[in-house]
Give the backbone structure.
Amino acid sequence: MILNFIFNIGDAMPFEEERKIFEDYLKSKRLKQSSQRDHILDVFLKTERHLKADELYRLVKKNFPETGFSTIYRTLKLLRECGLCNELILDDGTVRFEHLYGHEHHDHLICTKCGKFVEIMEPQIEKLQLKLAKKEGFVLQNHRLLLYGKCGKCKKK
Amino acid sequence: MILNFIFNIGDAMPFEEERKIFEDYLKSKRLKQSSQRDHILDVFLKTERHLKADELYRLVKKNFPETGFSTIYRTLKLLRECGLCNELILDDGTVRFEHLYGHEHHDHLICTKCGKFVEIMEPQIEKLQLKLAKKEGFVLQNHRLLLYGKCGKCKKK
DNA sequence: TTACCTGCAAAGAATTTGCAGGGCC
DNA sequence: GGCCCTGCAAATTCTTTGCAGGTAA
């Protein structure tokens, strides 16, 4: 593992499981590991914010300036395929990426002023969605619920 | 009204209210009416499907071949500003436009196979959303709920 | 050695903008 | 007449693809 050197021997390796998932996925598809892919995964995992592709690109470039935009997109695609990453399309059309592994299904509450994201979950809503879909004769496959408002701090201003 | 000639005298003019809203909006902004704008509004209103910009463009071109793409986009912007039109961004990133005037707030149930749109409404879900937002200290401004699944016909295949 | 991978630049797709000529009020 | 509108082409923005050289296995 190329990133070993960053951590002291004996430290728990952060995101060990996620890295294993990626590694296994690459192997299963006869794809190869590379320092770029490892580094992009690393930056992606340790950034809690929901990043846009160009934000991820800039962050990755900080420590790995020779990385290209296409590699960012290509790697994000792989991360989605192996279930580590989810693509989120907001109402204004911007696309952001979020961690998926270890995160249960959730919806989003987003501050229209400061951009704060809160992950939310309400089983009742999920149930009602199923009921609605059934009433219309649909088999529900997935859904996207975005709530927009002002967060505690921003509503006071 | 430029489109008068299409209808016999004495016929109820379709979409009279919507046209009035557009006219009033243009006046209020000191903007001008034009045959292109009227025609685009007309095609938009009489098409029940949720159109993409290029679909609207093609429909408008049928009877008004000299219309340009930019006029479509510019007019759609005006229609959104005056509340006649709503922009809907789907999960695959495509953008579609729907009628807004006379349509109560609703969410959407979309068939992932044939693209069928069903407008849905569940007051319970709306209530739960408010509750959720409040719990997180947010003031809710709006929301978007898209349900994806297979419709009655498509699920059988 | 044989794929696969990478960065770059070019190509795409969707939308917006600048401009010169034409039309509404 | 003055401002607004239009179509066109060019510019933008975001993302994908082709290619020639480099690299993992």
